[in-house]
Fold:
Amino acid sequence: MIETPTVTLEEDGIIFVDFRSLLVTLDLLYDGLNQQRALAPKKKSKVLLVGQAATKVDTDMIEFGACAETVQLTAAVAIVPLSKIGWILANLFMPLQRNPYPTRAFDTIEEGREWLLSLDAG
Structure:
């Protein structure tokens, strides 16, 4: 069985994507997006991504956030890296990302959630 991120629609309306110990890949991002679509079809959601680190930060990973499928379903993204390497990769990713919605990295899940809830609905 292939492991996938756990994706839940929280009571506050945030889509919580938990990669746990999985290394984030483009395929896993698309899996999470498909689960998001199933939970909140045709709705732009605020997304809280939590994980250890990505396998790499390449053009495909950077462009994922700006692709039509992702933009159609996403109002904002808070990223919470759970490891030092995750923070390094997030710092590399943030200046390169071309997301047409707010995207920020946070130290804690609580900080990411507070920021998402402070934004106007998308």
